Amino acid sequence: MLRKLLMTTVAASAMVGSAYAADLPRRAPPPAYVPPIPIFTWTGFYIGANVGGAFRANNTGLLDNAVFFGGAAPLAAFVVANNNNSGRFLVGGQAGVNWQINNFVLGIEGDGDVAIGGNNNFPGFLNPRTNTGFFGTVRGRGGIAFDRLLVYGTGGVAFGTRRDFGNTFIGTSFGVPTLFTTNTGSNTAIGYTVGAGVEYAFLNNWSIKGEYLFADLGANRRTFIAPTGAGVIIDARCEQFHIVRVGLNYRFNWGGYGAAAPVVARY
Description:
mainly beta, 1 helix, 8-stranded antiparallel barrel, 51% strand, 3-stranded antiparallel sheet, Porin
């Protein structure tokens, strides 16, 4: 009898425990992992290519500021306006690095372009030439990013080849037609450049830009001497350019795109 009573008590306890357990809330499974939304940033290294044009800002005649001495003078037939073709086609490449802090972007860029065109017609010179040259810059950049749109200002060092108006000038010495020659002057110049531009990232790693630069490579001073000792000093400050160009960049993103904070699942 006692045994039957114990078995009945155990069975009843098991039934009550099962019913209580059934009433307890079930533990929900953990939520699925949601990858972070990538945050676009301009931070990183980039390389690219560009095309554009350079247009001389000052088309002053070479003899406008010339200094003649020792009886030297230009031939009357050559005292005419300078009629050079001042436009040049630019094609080249660039490389640089950016660092974005909040909406501000700081960087440095270097570029180099081949300058094609710009036929010279300098009155009084026998062998003018500058059909092909080189132009390059090393510039700092600073701007504001509106997500994928960057508006920036830029400035730095410019260097390149000057226009070469030759080494032989036809003039007069005490009224007698004479050849003046020179060994002075250089066709390589260093100056400055300033400008502004916009750049838009149309893909995660690709961006397109347009920019304007003003460049000043200084004057090309040469002294021409005749056998008689007469001479002329020509200080041609015509190495100022307006530059307009567009470029395409590939950005390597120093851990930039996708640097969002991880999502932590809660239980």
